[in-house]
Amino acid sequence: MTEAQAIDLATTLSFAMLGVAVLATLIRILRGPTLADRILGLDMLNILGVGLIAVFAVRAGYYLYVDIAVALALVGFLSTAAFARYLLSRDEP
């Protein structure tokens, strides 16, 4: 097995596993009993998006996509923090 074949196999398996994780996360978002569960599901969806971009960058060999993944991770962190702040302020009288 050559290096190119190994990378192709690894990225194909990674895409498959990330796809299953995205489906499970979407089910958790739709069925989540509380708002906190849905917020964590959205955060997980963001993390999986970063993973998909990173795997695509490795497969394409174009590593500029990693910068996009880092930017998405930063925006996702800020949105999760904002959702958490909203959730805490909503519970206070």
Question: Any low-confidence stretches, pLDDT <50, length ≥5?
Answer: none
Summarize the main sheet: none
Q: What is the 3D shape? A: elongated
Strand content: under 5%
End-to-end separation: 63 Å
Relative helix content: over 70%
SSE ordering? HHH
Mean pLDDT: 92
Strand count:
0
Structural category is mainly alpha
SS element count, helices: 3
Question: What's the alpha carbon Rg, rounded to whole Å?
Answer: 17 Å
Write up what this structure looks like.
The chain is mainly alpha-helical and 93 residues long. It has 3 helices and no strands. Helix 1 runs antiparallel to helix 2 (35-60) and helix 2 runs antiparallel to helix 3. The chain starts with a helix and ends with a helix. The radius of gyration is 17 Å and the shape is elongated. The model has no long low-confidence stretch (mean pLDDT 92).
Fold blueprint:
Elements lengths: L2 H29 L3 H26 L4 H27 L2
Quick rundown:
The chain has 93 residues and is an all-alpha fold.
What characteristics describe this protein?
93 residues, mainly alpha, 3 helices, 88% helix, 0% strand
